[in-house]
Specification:
The structure is a homodimer of 314-residue chains. The first copy, chain A, is α/β, with parallel strands linked by helices and 314 residues long. Chain A contains 14 helices and eleven strands. In chain A, the strands form two sheets. An eight-stranded parallel β-sheet of chain A has the order 1-9-8-6-5-4-3-2. The two termini of chain A are 29 Å apart. The mean pLDDT of chain A is 97.
């Protein structure tokens, strides 16, 4: 049996990434109903909004779903209490220290998964008692590790050192990439960008169209003097690239970033001045489709690719 | 049958990368004798030195081997004539336009492979008549593509568009990474860093020891204002990082790089001021071993991993 499908009680070892401005209850419930694990991304929600999303997700699916909580979130204590009150069964924590909240959640019987980008934090998360980790490579969208280790290099290192299950993330939007991740030793995959363009994603349609139009080289890891983040090219990204090439310091980068750019770009559709977070795999995406179709296509290609590999003669 | 083992008439679809200061006749012949394809890296050789390496390689192995020629090499015409005179059967070209030399080599009956890092140049190489391409991801050592596309994202895009065989490179130093590359659609793999630390590699022992000591985050893609190159951290790399953070312009970077730093670092063993080119996968390497052992371990892990994947139940 697969350790991740057993842990979450789901059909396929495919997890939809919790993504700011993309993954509300509609996307999470669609993925869970299709047999994967849907995740509500709390990072872009006020606490009362999150509570509504959890309730609506539970109405929309009887299957397990999760909530992702960036631990640097200002209202994190309020969020954690809501997760307990609303009896959320699975919590993914990210962008923070797993020592802070893991035991609190575990004591309430909640399954805890922590997102990491290097072996050091993977081992730390494991020692804090998490049930699994998401290991996220350089090619992933949004915030990212400073080591810049790609999925190809990260997964074998992490799986060689951890006892708990490892969910691979970064660059996985197809069944053959899923097979590659499993070949590298992962137990399951987390898929972000491919679900960001799902019909049920709350991303603005302008953003979804920009993603499916993206080509190679259109995303770059920026803001390395703040927190590294993978951005899709647009005039705002050009300004960031220009400032970085000129050696702009932290203060200037904070000023350039300003406030609420992620919302204006990804949720409100400002393709010029918004901050557009997406993975490298966007260059391979070509359609806006229902989440269930995306999941089914990944799974079927995974199974077909596995058969192909098994039959190869050397 | 595998298209790459057929094309080169070799036993295993494992190619040793042509690497400056590492891959002379000793390494190339050891890899070819072990059933892979050994490559002499002409990039760090004067023409008469290259001729000697070709002759010594032929004495050391009766199996096929290749020569890698960076097309920006100043003596490229002289090199090409030597390859023909010495009846080299397989040539890998890189760092330049495949339109310039492919037909010259093909007319002499030479198999030609071109190294690329994006779909555009892959299609161009195919249209120029090359027999195969090496598709090299962001995690690879040495000079690298501007798109920063990782192996996980690059290989499915390239294989979806090309008819000719694709050799995956970047992040591949183990059998499970090889299986991942094959899962992504590659016909074969090119292995650099893992062979750079082979006993037969001409890299200085100081450099080999530094590679096996490398940890996550120790390599970074630098010199993006010149030609991007993945460097291993040392005082010289720190100086480069500092200059780049300060917004140093092209002229200052050229001055900082100076001359012959790659030779002094990789061949002469200056770990302080030398330029050390190696891949991200160096973080996973732990021993200096004979090339035949490295190849055998990769192949055996590949086969074992393939069996494991085939037996997985979901």
């Amino acid at each position: 049996m697969n350790r991740i499908t057993s842990l979450f009680d789901i059909q396929y070892p495919i997890i939809q990434a919790g993504m700011v401005w993309c993954s509300g209850w509609k996307l999470a419930s669609a993925v869970s109903n299709a047999g994967g694990l849907g995740i509500i991304g709390a990072g872009s929600m006020y606490p009362d909004v999150l509570r509504q999303h959890i309730r609506q997700c539970r109405e929309a699916t009887s299957r397990p779903f999760a909530v992702n909580v960036p631990l640097l979130y200002p209202n994190v204590e309020e969020i954690m209490n809501i997760l307990v009150e609303e009896q959320v069964g699975i919590v993914f924590t990210s962008a923070g220290n797993p020592a802070t909240w893991t035991s609190f959640l575990k004591e309430k019987g909640i399954i805890v998964v922590h997102v990491i980008a290097n072996t050091k934090f993977a081992l730390k998360a494991e020692s804090c008692g998490v049930d699994a980790v998401v290991a996220e490579g350089f090619e992933a969208g949004g915030h990212n590790g400073r080591e810049e280790t790609t999925t190809m290099c990260l997964i074998p290192m992490i799986t060689a050192q951890l006892q708990i299950p490892v969910i691979a993330a970064g660059g996985i939007g197809s069944g053959r990439a899923m097979l590659a991740a499993i070949a590298l030793g992962a137990d399951a995959v987390q898929v972000g960008s491919a679900f960001a363009v799902a019909e049920e994603s709350s991303a603005h349609v302008n953003f979804k169209r920009r993603i499916v139009d993206a080509v190679e080289g259109d995303t770059k890891l920026r803001m390395k003097k703040l927190v590294p983040v993978r951005l899709l090219n647009n005039p705002f990204d050009d300004a960031v690239a220009q400032a970085e090439a000129e050696g702009a310091n932290t203060e200037r980068m904070v000023q350039l970033l300003g406030r609420a750019r992620a919302k204006s770009g990804m949720f409100e559709g400002d393709m010029e001045e918004g901050e557009l977070e997406i993975g490298q795999v966007s260059a391979m995406l070509s359609d806006i489709k229902p989440a269930a179709v995306i999941l089914k296509e990944i799974w079927e290609e995974f199974m077909v690719s596995r058969d192909r590999i098994a039959r190869l003669e050397f």
